[in-house]
Amino acid sequence: MSFVRLAQVSRHYGEVHALKRVSLEVAEGELVAVMGPSASGKSTLLNVAGGLDLPTSGTVTVDGADLAQVRDLPALRRRAVGYVFQDLNLIPSLTAAENVMLPRELDGVRTRRARAESLAVMEEVGVANLADRFPDEMSGGQRQRVAIARALVGDRRLVLADEPTGALDTHVSDEILHVLRGRADAGAAVLLVTHESRYAAWADRVVYLRDGEIVDSSLLEQVR
Amino acid sequence: MSVRHGLLALLSRGPRHGYQLRAEFESSTGATWPLNIGQVYTTLTRMERDGLVEQGEADEHGRVAYRITEAGRAEMERWFSTPVAQSDRPRDELVIKLALAITTHPNAHQVIQAQRAATMRTMQELTRAKRAALDGPAQRLVLDSMIFQAEAEQRWLDHCEAVLRES
């Protein structure tokens, strides 16, 4: 069943047509990668899918709800959507675990439970041993993984990742893709934007975007 | 690269018989280079003739273990210390095919797109195999090498497309 669905979505910024009638669905348990050169509309597509930006025309449905009709969009975004970006800034005066807990505490979850949730996701991402370190006591790869834990904490059924590996070494990037793949295998819908084919290859389906349009997509037979 | 160098490297860790050598060769190369057992024994016989290995005692199943000689060790060291030459590789069929498509085909873009989808499928399969690879780093690194090669091909296809759009 598709968890996020874009139907004939266009997004114009004045004269610039960033997306042109794009239709795309991501099912629960599926990892879909969007590839394309810079300025092809990849990030716009991701922002529209997660309700960070609204389409000029067309509809975006998340978990059955039309985003144009949702009354409290920020609440839906906080509850159901995890965002992973290239430069995720941690708060320097908080420890890793406190950084990861933060979104849950903002959601009104009690401290004890928020801490338990944060340690669980840090374990999943492989940074449980860094819980009490401050950001300036970690390497770049470690900071990115803590930031990813923060993006995933709680029950995020939709994960949106925009070039999540940034300038990290390839083997660290592989670990990050491993985490995203694991989330999909556990039932989340994951949409990944990347310009690197080696990371797109972790996906079930790869979509190519060119000048705001989907030009072709390849589907690997499901043989898991 | 020849099978004999691969077998010498495995024998440098201790005596082994043919079936063991075949299993270890395949698991350390990520099963990318399958050997048949006849090939293994033919190679061992030639290596024995050349003084690189010698036969030991037969075990209770009648299988003979081979062991590496001093000359064999020297040959293996020489192999490991000699880099592989770029010029030994054959012509790349894809490069030739695309060059001809661009020269003669009315829609070279379709050729590029079809190739890109096929290469991506290969990368997805390799990535799947890498996630399932549990036999240690050698197997994983062999698959990584194939992924890097496929990635280079993808990048080159993107580059071809960008250049053709401008021209």
Automatic annotation (TrEMBL), chain A:
SUPFAM superfamilies: P-loop containing nucleoside triphosphate hydrolases
Gene Ontology molecular function: any one: ATP hydrolysis activity
One cellular-component annotation, GO: membrane protein complex
Boundaries of every ABC transporter domain copy: 4-224
SMART domains the record matches: AAA
One Pfam family from the record: ABC_tran
Keyword terms of this UniProt record: ATP-binding, Nucleotide-binding, Transport
Protein name, entry field: Macrolide ABC transporter ATP-binding protein
Lineage: Bacteria, Bacillati, Actinomycetota, Actinomycetes, Streptosporangiales
Organism: Planobispora longispora
Coiled-coil ranges per UniProt: none
Automatic annotation (TrEMBL), chain B:
Pfam families from the UniProt entry: PadR, Vir_act_alpha_C
InterPro entries for this protein: Tscrpt_reg_PadR_C, Tscrpt_reg_PadR_N, WH-like_DNA-bd_sf, WH_DNA-bd_sf
Annotated Transcription regulator PadR C-terminal domain residues: 91-165
Superkingdom, taxonomy of origin: Bacteria
Domain Transcription regulator PadR N-terminal: 7-77
Name under which the protein is recorded: Transcriptional regulator
Organism name: Planobispora longispora
